[in-house]
Amino acid sequence: MANRYFTVSWDQLHRDARALAWRLLDKGPFQGVVAITRGGLIPAAIIARELDCRVIETVSVVTYDEESMGKPQVVKAPVAAGDGTGWLLIDDLVDTGTTAKIVRALLPGAHFATIYAKPAAKPLVDSFVTEVSQDTWILFPWDTEVQFVPPIAKGGVTPA
Ligand SMILES: O=P(O)(O)OC[C@H]1O[C@H](OP(=O)(O)OP(=O)(O)O)[C@H](O)[C@@H]1O
Ligand SMILES: Nc1nc2[nH]cnc2c(=O)[nH]1
Ligand SMILES: [Mg+2]
């Protein structure tokens, strides 16, 4: 269970995705990008743009309902990427590695990259940008909105 949050803004996400693209430059060229939906879609779009890659495939694994984990299900398998050789596989993050293990089994030849990684699943990723602790829940900009917080003196709490 997460006991702290790491809030990522659109700006931060864009910067971190571009930092990942820099790391991937000499790992390619790639014939296409496979995005692990849904969280990998926006990172994959940014990285595909930076690497000048026009072909995007998707794979969808349903693992979580909000913050709790259920039985993982592949609801859309990749069609165009063969065993993944020559393809770049992108997700927003790895946490327990459950999603990563399932997708790697489908695409063993792909280069697997995420923007964020937690320690338990770090060994499953070929390239990533930022490590966060296992007890941190990452809040993406598509999961959040900006809202009013009362002043500290009046009971406002700033998340760590
Ligand atoms: O390493 P794991 O413990 O498997 O967790 C990582 C996965 O969890 C999140 O996806 P989620 O299942 O919430 O679906 P979504 O991308 O559709 O939001 C995230 O986008 C990763 O794909
Ligand atoms: N948004 C989000 N989804 C996740 N799925 C597994 N771990 C996480 C996390 O830290 N943040
Ligand atoms: Mg996901």
UniProtKB/TrEMBL annotation:
SUPFAM superfamilies: PRTase-like (SSF53271). It is an enzyme of class 2 (transferase). Mg(2+) binds at residue 92. Xanthine binds at residues 95, 138. It is a peripheral membrane protein. Its EC number is 2.4.2.22. The keyword Coiled coil does not apply. Homotetramer. Belongs to the purine/pyrimidine phosphoribosyltransferase family. XGPT subfamily. This is Xanthine-guanine phosphoribosyltransferase. It comes from Rhodovarius crocodyli. The lineage of its organism: Bacteria, Pseudomonadati, Pseudomonadota, Alphaproteobacteria, Acetobacterales.
